[in-house]
Amino acid sequence: MLSTFVYPRLGSRPISKITAPELLGALRLIEARGTHETAHRTKQRVGQVFRYAIATGRAERDISVDLRGALAPIVTTHHAAITDPIAIGHLLRAIDGYCGQPVTHAALRLAPLVFLRPGELRHAEWSEINFDAAEWRIPGARMKMREAHIVPPPQQAVEVLRNLLPLTGVSRYVFPSLRSRQRPMSENTINAALRRLGYGQEEMTGHGFRAMASTCLNEQGWNSDLIELQLAHAERNKVRAAYNRSTRLQDRRKMMQAWADHLDTLRVGATIIPFRRTPM
């Protein structure tokens, strides 16, 4: 955020000389793109820099606090998602029949199995995946909450990745761009593929696979803490967060495999959701 939006306008200035209107000008450019959440997050990052500057004697105050209320508020929107079991089965069969690029097809097949955020999925790197341990470790720098995340991929996801390895294994990225292996897949690829399958933006999105999994797993009686951990939602209690990450991986592994198996039953036309015993 800093290198893209702040440094070009303010990076060469002494931090003690930067004014609140100058910072607001940089943030307004982000708002003009329609990315209001990014504008707020960039303001927070700048505030961290100013607080460090104060602590080290480079500045006397944090000017970002003067911009409270100056930015447009973040409007929370819900991503379209399919949660009806029968409709999920139709979607999975449509994905199986996708006739586009093999890499895109693999991403479509993997999305419902691991329910990562679209950006976390398309930026996946082969170095993060340990086939022997059946673990996918995503560094905090790539996660929305800036905390490292472990995905215990079910057998079905491992199979998708192993089949993809001969195609993109020479690349840094699991899902490289069609134009350059040095870049990840475009952020629009998954949604464009869903449109090609006949699903409109008000019906299903790449982000919707997360809501699909969350809704169905909760309905099946899985422990809500496990679901939230696997979704990599924020844990406000840091002690509890560390405890959860270190002790609940096996429970999450069981849940992920059960979820993948459940998707297989929906794919072949099952309509009944079996109740799962909630792991303790």
Architecture overview:
This protein is mainly α and 280 residues long. Helices cover 51% and strands 3% of the residues. The protein has helices at 2-10, 20-32, 36-55, 85-96, 102-114, 118-122, 155-168, 189-196, 208-219, 224-231, 238-247, 249-267, and strands at residues 129-130, 135-138, 149-151. Strands 1-2-3 form a three-stranded antiparallel β-sheet, with no helix packed on it. Helix 1 (2-10) packs across helix 2 (20-32), helix 2 (20-32) runs antiparallel to helix 3 and helix 4 (85-96) packs across helix 12 (249-267).
Layout of secondary structure:
Layout: H1 2-10, H2 20-32, H3 36-55, H4 85-96, H5 102-114, H6 118-122, E1 129-130, E2 135-138, E3 149-151, H7 155-168, H8 189-196, H9 208-219, H10 224-231, H11 238-247, H12 249-267
Antiparallel strand pairs: 1-2, 2-3
Shape: elongated
* Average pLDDT score: 86
Unreliable spans: 272-280
Separation of termini? 40 Å
By secondary-structure content and strand pairing, the structural class works out as mainly alpha
Question: What is the subunit arrangement here?
Answer: single chain
Number of strands: 3
**Proportion in helices:** 40-55%
- How many DSSP H or I helices? 12
> What percent of residues are in strands?
under 5%
Lateral arrangement of strands in the main beta sheet: 1-2-3
Radius of gyration: 21 Å
Largest sheet, strands/sense/barrel: 3 strands, antiparallel
The SSE string, one letter per element, is HHHHHHEEEHHHHHH
